[in-house]
UniProtKB/TrEMBL annotation:
Keyword Hydrolase: yes
SUPFAM superfamilies: SGNH hydrolase (SSF52266)
Keywords on record: Hydrolase, Lipid degradation, Lipid metabolism, Signal
Signal peptide (UniProt feature, chain positions): 1-25
Originating organism: Musa acuminata subsp. malaccensis (Wild banana)
Keyword Signal among record annotations: yes
Any GO molecular function: hydrolase activity, acting on ester bonds
InterPro entries: GDSL (IPR001087), GDSL_Est/Lipase (IPR051058), SGNH_hydro_sf (IPR036514), SGNH_plant_lipase-like (IPR035669)
Name the UniProt record assigns to this protein: (wild Malaysian banana) hypothetical protein
One GO-annotated biological process of the protein: lipid catabolic process
Organism taxonomic ancestry: Eukaryota, Viridiplantae, Streptophyta, Embryophyta, Tracheophyta
Amino acid sequence: MASSSSSTLVTLVVILCCWYGGCQAQTEVSAVYVFGDSLADVGNNNHLGLSLLKADFPHNGVDFPGHKATGRFSNGKNSADFLAEKLGRPTSPAYLSIPSSSNNTDEFLGGVNFASGGGGVLDSTNKDQCISFNKQIDYYSSVYAALVQQLGSAQTQAHLSNSVFALVIGSNDILNYVKSSSANKLKNPPQQFVDSLISSLRGQLKRIYNLGARKFVFIGTGPIGCCPAQRHQNKTRECSVEANYLSVQYNKGASSLLQEMSEELSDMSYSYFDTYTALLEYINNPDAYGFVEVKAACCGLGDLNAKIACLPISSYCSNRKDHIFWDLFHPTEATAERLTSTAFDGSVPYVYPMNIRQLVAM
Ligand SMILES: *[C@@H]1O[C@H](CO)[C@@H](O)[C@H](O)[C@H]1NC(C)=O
Ligand SMILES: *[C@@H]1O[C@H](CO)[C@@H](O)[C@H](O)[C@H]1NC(C)=O
């Protein structure tokens, strides 16, 4: 039977992988540095007094250890937590939660998370409500300078070369474009807009590389048009074609950019995770992945629980493990865990040219 020969093949591949070290506990990474938006924010926005883009109130955190809201836009842990767990490390703390003192070297050596809800590739995205990607890199630059001052360049570079730099950015730029006026879209057509994002991203990734990063984990944008907030705007509750198209184009640009960079910079490696394909697969075949509700948010009010966000006055579902979406924009803990596992151990078409386990073993 075909199934027995394919399982023989799987066994063979597994044995070969183990033989070459792929199944061994990977070499330990020195630290995890995280950049991005609300998909990876572990509390930076709690420190932004004026921002409305916060998640430091119930029902966020209902499944987090201690059942408390921490600033994560989730019922529980997010991708930054699961990535750290997979790497056998504690979750890197939010940069703004680290007390400023004359010597933060120990904290900085342990890894730092700069991600901020609402953050985008463009400075104009949710301006004054979040830490833009550029500002996150500014903060990282000061971390880098502190490390070099304390440890010297060579030791700092050795540490950073063995660290993982995880990035999840772009969704907010796309969401803002989708809701912008048709006059703006005429002036700045979709592909021109995406090209401008990729052009900014090029400079940003290059800058992080120039500050010592060598192992990049890039988490592509998901099927943004399928989040409850977007479906809610469609009479038949279908996914927004416009938002999904922009996400696909952005991801194409980002993955080509990474490939170009790794060809140009021989000591740079990366793992690109195609969130779009993976999450759409869960949405289209929920049974196969243990999901039941793929359209409505768990927490919120109104149609699809997407008319009103997840606020203390909102209701939330009891079956959180079988919902793809926690609130009108964000995945549940269950979704984040499944996505991170696939990024860590999966293969094409979900993750390439290598998965995260292979990246850290390099
Ligand atoms: C700062 O911390 C690092 C790491 O613990 C240590 O090696 C260094 O001596 C400290 N420097 C100062 C000025 O305290
Ligand atoms: C809803 O989405 C479908 C599929 O993208 C589209 O054909 C339809 O025009 C949309 N309806 C509205 C009211 O936007």
